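Quick one: structure for this chain?
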Amino acid sequence: IFKAIALGASGIGVGRPVLYSLASYGEKGVVRMVHMLQDELTMVMRLSGCPTVASITNEHVITRNLADHIVPLPADHLTMGTYMPLLPASRM
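Got it. Here's what it folds into:
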């Protein structure tokens, strides 16, 4: 979350942790997960010397090797090479 804010994000998706918490522990699990994320963000902000969220800048993260961590979407060669695409009913 800290890195996303530092790189300019105005929102962060945390879908999987919410689903796992909800499926495992219900509403109390989601509340606990949110508190854990808040505590973690607070700790990282303290360790980096940022008193507020507004004080987090891109100078707080290393961005020179960011391109090494971007993974392209894999191509589905089985579907592309084996199956014929479905055509709309108007073209049949």
